[in-house]
Design brief:
Elements lengths: L2 H15 L12 E7 L4 E10 L2 E10 L2 H14 L4 H16 L23 H22 L4 E5 L27 H9 L3 E2 L4 E2 H4 L2 E7 L2 E6 L9 H13 L6 E6 L7 H4 L2 H7 L3
Parallel strand pairs: 1-4, 8-9
Antiparallel strand pairs: 1-2, 2-3, 5-6, 7-8
Helix pairs in contact: 1-2, 2-4, 3-4
This protein binds zinc ion (ZN).
């Protein structure tokens, strides 16, 4: 893994964690929605135009780290731009992703260049260009006098592998309710796989948590059979869960089926950190 790859990944994660211009404008001039059915990415762009200038905009995005980071970067660079300039930027970015032409070199391209690495993963290019296509579609609608547009990523280009169709965030605990299972999963986040230095929940190593009258069975796997860390992780699971006041017994249950596959099982953040796009 090169230094540049690491740096790029860091920039993408930073935008994913703290998306710029996130939300919805109250009285937008233009609303454009985009969907990438290949990955499950969705976003809504609300724009306030003043004449030809993008005075303000917000992005409401759900989906993978690439799509959200790209939307965040886009919102930053097109704010305050006249429509033709935003359009030119979008076309140059898309060409760089789809046709391998050069990215810009001016300062506004600094973060966008981090998405260059995504080109190595054709299935994820649609994730990176979704927000830009949604913008272009919105501009098109505005030109024809409409205030609304919808863009759906099409079939052109490579099909994503099936693995990627698992919705992001499936391994993450829900935020609103706090069931016993969620408490258990939260506590299990303190169990770190020492090899990858990431927690077992986000890695997707916890397959199941069954709770019955204070007895808790954790079905889990390890990153590879023959992993010498097995006993350490089992001990950590045991002691982490014992901290919960309602837990009377802990039964860690190590399984090898299905084999661990970070592409489908790990959280978006872990996948990006591992460089799995
Ligand atoms: Zn995506």
């Amino acid at each position: 893994m090169s230094l540049t790859d690491d740096l790029y990944r860091e920039i993408i994660l930073e935008h994913f964690r703290s998306p710029r211009n996130s939300g919805r404008l109250e009285n937008p001039t233009l609303i454009s929605q985009g969907v990438n059915p290949f990955c499950g990415d969705e976003l809504e762009l609300t724009v306030a135009l003043e004449g030809d200038v993008i005075r303000d905009l917000r992005v409401h995005a759900k989906g993978c780290s690439i799509s959200q980071a790209s939307a965040s970067m886009m919102s930053e660079v097109i704010q305050g731009k006249a429509i033709p300039a935003a359009e030119a930027l979008a076309r140059q970015f898309k060409a760089a992703m789809l046709e391998n032409t050069a990215m810009g070199t001016s300062p506004e391209w600094e973060d966008l260049q981090a998405l260059e690495g995504v080109k190595k993963y054709p299935a994820r290019i649609k994730c990176a260009i979704l927000s830009w296509n949604t913008l272009l579609e919105g501009i098109e609608a505005h030109r024809s006098g409409k205030g609304q547009a919808t863009h759906v990523e099409g079939e052109e280009g490579e099909r994503p592998d099936l693995a990627h169709q698992v919705k992001p965030g499936e391994t993450a605990p829900a935020e609103t309710t706090s069931s016993l299972e969620e408490q258990a999963r939260e506590v299990l986040k303190s169990v770190i796989d020492p090899e990858l230095n990431m927690n077992v929940v986000d890695l997707g190593l916890i397959y199941g948590v069954d709770i019955q009258n204070g007895s808790i069975r954790v079905t889990y796997t390890l990153t590879s059979p023959g992993c010498p860390l097995g006993p350490i992780i089992q001990g950590q699971i045991q002691s982490a869960l014992s901290r919960l006041p309602w837990v009377k017994e802990v039964h860690p249950d190590l399984v090898w089926q299905p084999p661990w596959d970070p592409r489908t099982m790990a959280s978006e953040e872990v996948k990006t950190e591992l460089g799995i796009w």
